[in-house]
Design a protein that fits this description.
With about 600 residues, the protein is of the alpha/beta class. Helices cover about 40% and strands about 15% of the residues. The chain contains 21 helices and 22 strands.
């Protein structure tokens, strides 16, 4: 054994490798991305890893590998589970041969997501076991146990870390490589009564699933990571208790170091719920407080246990508003919840000076981001026309911010393409645009374009191609020409795909050439039917800066058009004069092309 200082996601990846994982597939999404990236970096040669085109593809690939007896890991964030849910809901009825862990990183807050979905709810809905780690060390150890349970019971299982477990750092005790489990897949054995999901098989397997989960209720009551703590508080000393899981359990432990210990039930497997252990915990108690992220999953489970066994215990939590019912828990919020529950005045619970509030820093497109130029070109070309700009998920969602104000709708990945069609069907006089990134195009927008062509929509697709998956950490995708294992492969051409599915007008233009970009938008948007513009310019985070722009103060008339029009963070006013922050400017040249007096020069020319 040895110790390493690791991010929680890195610890999870190392745990999967120690468990003998054979195949890892996923789609990038904060806060899950580093798990797969760490596997790619630390794997041995016989471990296969890929960024799949989307979560559905990743889960289906992993399922196929698990059919052979391979141990497989699928990684995604909570909204990615929506994409993967179709095969997952069927796979639970079929089962697997090798251990299969579906890692879904939840994002309380939400910090970088559309929703605050709670994967524990999906575990209940899909009838699958769920593991909920509370620290980096536990995550490392628990994912190894998750593979064992999955293999033993022939079922995929959920592994559900949240943001603070995923991105927190800790010193983690790891196995040495010679201690790793070695898994040798048997290979796929043909058996249509096992692997083909006919209705009769689904009915039979449904009964087996219910029976298995009843067994797991007892098994998980004996699972060492589900535990009753502060046993000394249960013999008449205290008639209150805490139920907690995940990072909230860690916060609760820290809070009780100061507030005093009371009996606590730690739940590591929210589904199936460890009912017998919960009954043991409830003995002699009058009230329990459930602390969890995000939904009242533990609280409802405790209410069910109390109702089923006629326990006269009051259950408090989110449903009773003793714990907030949205957003992320923090060390301080949990301490206040417990202090209020224990009747301790909050001023006595404060153990440190409260720091001043941090300044508000709204998210913004980076200085030099080509998406800014793309949005501005479309905005200029469509001035005075009735338009709708349907956005999508990615960096370019930030095009909604002023002064660009170029994202009228944003729902989920790929949805903008179909939303634009829907608006166009009702408002044929509206010029409809749908913006999508290059990674999202491959992940979930292609079918929307097929739908548009087939159903004769009238819309303009704008593909913002910056040659990477920028928002989640610059992962490769089918258009980049490389895989996660470093292989150089043929790039899949977005233009060729569009033409292949029937889009006749496809134009590619550099958005940083403002004049050409505006002219292209006007020409393409005026055509009937489905047409596409590919704005192609690499993300500034993966290319070298082109130098820095300069302002000729003698020419500058301080009209501030450069600031008002594009909102680049490198442009600001200092001492009454428009100024360029040279530490941010990348020399994209967009500001120089809209300066009315030619006062801005430098960077790279696009003439």
């Amino acid at each position: 054994m040895h110790k390493e200082f690791l991010m929680g996601n890195e610890a999870i990846a190392m745990g999967a490798l120690a468990a003998g994982v054979n195949v890892v597939a996923g789609y990038p999404g904060t806060p899950s991305s580093e798990v797969l990236e760490t596997v790619a970096k630390r794997r041995s040669r016989d471990v296969y890893v890929e960024w799949s085109v989307n979560e559905k593809a990743a889960l289906e690939l992993a399922a196929g590998a698990a059919y052979t007896g391979a141990r497989t890991l699928v990684t995604m964030k909570q909204v990615g589970l929506n994409v993967a849910s179709d095969p997952l809901m069927c796979l639970e009825y079929i089962g697997v041969k090798g251990g299969m862990v579906v890692l879904v990183a939840d994002d309380p807050g939400p910090i970088s997501s559309q929703t605050e979905q709670d994967t524990r709810q999906f575990a209940v809905y899909s009838k699958l076991p769920c593991f909920d780690p509370s620290s980096a060390q536990e995550a490392y150890e628990m994912i190894q146990e998750a593979f064992d349970y999955s293999e033993q019971y022939g079922t995929p299982v959920f592994f559900r870390p949240t943001t603070r477990v995923c991105h927190g750092y800790a010193s983690v005790e790891l196995k040495d490589q010679e201690q790793y489990h070695v898994n040798q897949p048997e290979g796929f054995v043909k058996d249509t009564s096992k692997w083909v999901i006919f209705p009769r098989l689904a009915f039979q397997n449904h009964m087996k699933i219910e029976s298995r989960n009843e067994e797991l209720v007892q098994v998980f009551s004996d699972y060492s990571r589900n535990a009753i703590l502060s046993e000394d508080a249960q013999h008449g000393q205290c008639r209150n208790g805490i139920v907690a899981s995940g990072i909230s359990y860690t916060y609760a432990c820290e809070a009780m170091e100061q507030l005093g210990h009371i009996r606590m039930l730690k739940v590591a497997t929210p589904h199936p719920f460890p009912e017998q252990l919960a009954l043991q915990f409830l003995e002699g108690l009058d009230e329990v407080l459930c602390i969890e992220e995000l939904d009242p999953v533990l609280e409802r489970a405790m209410l069910q246990v109390c109702g089923k066994h006629h326990c006269q215990v009051k259950v408090l939590g989110k449903l009773t508003h003793h714990v907030k019912n949205a957003g992320e828990n923090t060390r301080d919020s949990v301490k206040k919840n417990i202090a209020d529950f224990m009747g301790i005045p909050m001023e006595e619970a404060v153990d440190r000076e409260v720091p001043p509030a941090l300044p508000v820093r709204p998210p913004v497109l980076c200085a030099g981001c080509p998406h800014r130029a793309s949005f501005y070109a479309v905005k200029q070309a469509m001035k005075g026309k009735k338009t709708i700009f349907c956005g999508d998920i990615g960096c370019y969602t930030l095009g909604n911010a002023m002064p660009l104000d170029m994202v009228d709708t944003c729902l989920c990945m790929g949805a903008g393409v179909n939303i634009a069609q829907g608006v166009g069907k009702v408002e044929p006089d509206t010029t409809c645009f749908a913006f999508v990134g290059d990674s999202t195009f491959f992940a979930s927008a292609i079918t929307g374009v097929v739908n548009a062509v087939y159903n004769q929509a009238n819309m303009t697709l704008v593909v913002l191609d910056n040659s990477t998956t920028a928002m989640t950490g610059h992962q490769p995708h089918p258009g980049t020409g490389r895989t996660m294992m470093g292989e150089i492969v043929s790039k899949i051409s977005i233009e060729a795909v569009l033409r292949g599915i029937g889009v006749e007008t496809v134009e590619t233009v550099n958005p940083l050439d403002l004049q050409q970009a505006v002219a292209c938008v006007r020409e393409v948007a005026a055509k009937p039917g489905v047409k596409a513009i590919i704005f192609k310019s690499p993300c500034i985070a993966v290319t070298k800066p082109r130098g820095c722009m300069n302002i000729d103060t003698e020419k500058c008339i301080n009209c501030k058009k450069c600031i008002r029009e594009i909102g680049c963070p490198a442009l600001f006013v200092k001492d009454g004069q428009v100024t360029i922050d040279k530490s941010l400017c990348t020399g994209c040249g967009l500001c120089s092309q809209l300066c009315p007096v030619g006062a801005i020069t430098g960077g790279e020319s696009h003439e």
